[in-house]
Design goal:
single chain; alpha/beta; Rossmann fold; seven-stranded parallel β-sheet; 6 helices; 39% helix; 17% strand
């Protein structure tokens, strides 16, 4: 069980990049953390529970939330960070691409969010955060990405719908819409081109996204917000 009053955050896609940054940041705030990804290693920190699994499988969601409740007794925050991005011309997407992206981005959000909210309702509140992309509202001809827009656009709509459905019951729902962030997903040789997509002339850092999530975490009057953290891309080019 958690220490008296200790809050608990669940982070998906937690083994590297933004997810790993979020795990460290929530621990620094004193939260217990449940961290999940396909390849996540066990943690030496007693206040971090790790669960390996494919978030596209509802059984993984069940195991993650069960592990959090067993160790800490509650869930306060869920960050739906796991995501797949496949940039291809629309007609070149395969059934395999479609199944993979829909699986992680949509199914991976659905079951774990249901389970987390069920627990949040028992103790009067909580916070759900989706990690999205600013391409949803501002597509770029240089980055063909219909599957990202289809799935993350759905998440952004769901973010607002959840915010309104639960506004009277203490649960907030927000999203952070990213530009391109320096993570292991993007090889070094692509960085110059990726930086040039952003009006500010650089890629984002993991810390930029972590700071945005923590802002939302500590903003009790903010719900249903899609916060663009994208180096100006959503404003124009």
């Amino acid at each position: 069980m958690s220490a008296q009053g200790q809050k608990v955050a669940v982070v998906t896609g937690a083994s590297q990049g933004i997810g790993a940054g979020l795990v460290a940041a929530y621990r620094k705030l004193g939260y217990g953390v449940v961290a999940t990804s396909r390849t996540i290693a066990e943690s030496q920190d007693a206040d971090i529970v790790t669960v390996q699994g494919d978030i596209a499988d509802p059984a993984t969601a069940e195991r993650v939330i069960a592990a959090g409740l067993e160790r800490f007794g509650r869930i306060d925050t869920l960050v739906n960070n796991a995501g797949i991005f496949v940039a291809k011309p629309f007609t070149e997407y395969t059934q395999v691409d479609y199944d993979a992206v829909l699986g992680v981005n949509v199914a991976g959000f659905f079951r774990i969010t249901q389970l987390a909210i069920e627990d949040m309702l028992k103790h009067g509140g909580g916070h759900v955060v989706q990690i999205s992309t600013s391409l949803v509202e501002h597509p770029n001809s240089a980055v063909p990405s219909v599957l990202a827009s289809l799935t993350k656009g759905g998440l952004q709509a769901a973010t607002k719908a959840l915010a309104i459905e639960y506004a009277g019951r203490g649960i907030r729902s927000n999203a952070v819409a990213l530009g391109t962030i320096k993570t292991p997903m993007h090889p070094e040789e692509t960085h110059e081109v990726l930086a040039s997509l952003h009006p500010v002339g650089r890629m984002g850092e993991v810390g930029d996204i972590v700071d945005a999530v923590l802002y939302l975490e500590n903003a009790p009057f903010v719900t249903g917000e899609i916060l663009a953290v994208d180096g100006g891309q959503s404003a124009g080019h």
